[in-house]
């Protein structure tokens, strides 16, 4: 199974407070528990940036999380690349095209993306700012910021089911 998420900010005090946690340890453990309740050891996870805030929190989270993690790096991730490399995380910059799944993955929302206007289904999945809402009536674009999805990864299959339900309602 393939899962998508972004903006976990493991170890970031401001994120923990904004999310209602007493401490970063509480936030991190809650998110790790939620992640591992969904994601199996052999599942693939695409994290679309802002994974961790500091070296210790990032390494601690990576050592506990299930799945094979791929990361589209954001500005906050660049300084943590050595930890990602040591922990076996595949890192990418810019955007990545999952051709077999019809998806374009990026940290930042894109106005245009490869295959956007082709007849085949094309979804753009992005993280970052929660103000960039998913708008399936106009475009197949999802914001996968974990704050919008109960602080846990969402399966690519679920996103495709949501897209199909919206399209059926339009008919």
Averaged pLDDT, please?
86
Contiguous helical run count: 5
Please state roughly what percent of the residues sit in beta strands, choosing from under 5%, 5-15%, 15-25%, 25-35%, 35-45% or over 45%: 15-25%
The secondary-structure class comes to alpha/beta
Please give the largest β-sheet.
5 strands, mixed
Distance between the termini: 30 Å
Overall shape: it is: globular
Report the strand count: 9
Give the helix level as a range of percent: 25-40%
Instruction: Note the run of SSEs as H and E.
Output: EHHEHEHEEEEEEH
Strand order of the largest sheet: 4-3-2-1-9
Uncertain ranges:
none
Our Rg estimate from Cα atoms comes to: 16 Å
List keywords for this structure.
globular; 5-stranded mixed β-sheet; 171 residues; 30% helix; alpha/beta; 5 helices
Outline:
This protein is α/β, with parallel strands linked by helices and 171 residues long.
Describe this structure as you would to a colleague.
- Strand 2 (44-47), helix 3 and strand 3 form a beta-alpha-beta unit.
- The chain has 5 helices and 9 strands; from the N terminus they run E-H-H-E-H-E-H-E-E-E-E-E-E-H.
- It has a 5-stranded mixed beta sheet. The chain has a 4-stranded mixed beta sheet with strand order 5-6-7-8, with no helix packed on it.
- The chain starts with a strand and ends with a helix.
- It has helices at 13-18, 24-38, 55-64, 81-86, 156-170, and strands spanning 2-5, 44-47, 68-72, 90-92, 95-98, 103-106, 123-126, 141-143, 154-155.
- The protein has 171 residues and is of the alpha/beta class.
């Amino acid at each position: 199974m393939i899962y998508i998420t972004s903006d976990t900010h493991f170890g970031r005090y401001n994120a923990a407070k904004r999310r209602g946690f007493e401490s970063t340890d509480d936030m991190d453990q809650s998110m790790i528990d939620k992640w591992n309740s969904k994601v199996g050891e052999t599942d693939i996870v695409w994290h679309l940036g802002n994974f961790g805030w500091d070296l210790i929190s990032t390494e601690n989270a990576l050592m506990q999380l299930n799945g094979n993690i791929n990361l589209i790096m954001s500005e906050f991730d660049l300084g943590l690349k050595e930890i990602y490399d040591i922990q076996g995380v595949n890192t990418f910059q810019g955007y990545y095209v999952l051709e077999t799944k019809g998806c374009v993955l990026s940290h930042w929302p894109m106005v245009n993306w490869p295959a956007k206007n082709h007849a085949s289904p094309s979804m753009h999945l992005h993280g970052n700012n929660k103000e960039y809402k998913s708008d399936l009536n106009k475009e197949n674009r999802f914001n996968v910021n974990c704050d919008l999805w109960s602080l846990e990864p969402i399966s690519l299959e679920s996103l495709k089911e949501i897209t199909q339900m919206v399209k059926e309602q339009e008919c």
